[in-house]
Design goal:
Layout lengths: L12 E9 L2 E9 L3 E7 L7 E5 L8 E6 L6 H13 L2 E7 L5 H17 L5
Parallel strand pairs: 3-6
Antiparallel strand pairs: 1-2, 2-3, 4-5, 4-6
């Protein structure tokens, strides 16, 4: 069992959860690192893209970039930006769902926010 200061000591915590959204089972994998967060979202075990975002003192909007995958798909980059703003951490996001419809993406993001509220220590 880990205490509240576990992340400060360099421990990595893992948190997995799933949700059925629009008849699709979506899996979420969260790795909380010392000063950053890695979030994988998908239906099958693939890593098709990866983006990162972080807050800076120069701009209220977190800076973000795609590291892997289709650079024209901004789904993971946008999600990383919003999560970086919410957590004030460096956030890596891999969004691996074929459905990038904005309504569906909003459902995914709302499910993540629900989990963050229920288990803040995991984020």
């Amino acid at each position: 069992m880990e205490g509240p200061g576990a992340a400060a000591r360099g421990n990595v915590t893992l948190h997995n959860f799933s949700a059925r959204l629009w008849e699709q089972l979506v899996h979420f994998h969260v790795m909380r690192l010392t000063d950053s967060l890695f979030l994988w979202v998908g239906a099958t075990p693939h890593l098709r893209n990866l983006s990162v975002a972080m807050c800076t003192r120069y701009d209220p909007i977190p800076v973000s970039t795609a590291l892997l995958g289709d650079m024209s798909d901004t789904t993971s980059t946008g999600l990383a930006q919003r999560l970086a703003r919410k957590t004030s951490k460096q956030v890596f996001v891999s969004y691996n769902l074929p459905n990038t419809d904005s309504s569906f993406t909003l459902l995914v993001e709302n499910r993540i926010k629900e989990e963050m509220e229920a288990f803040p220590e995991k984020f």
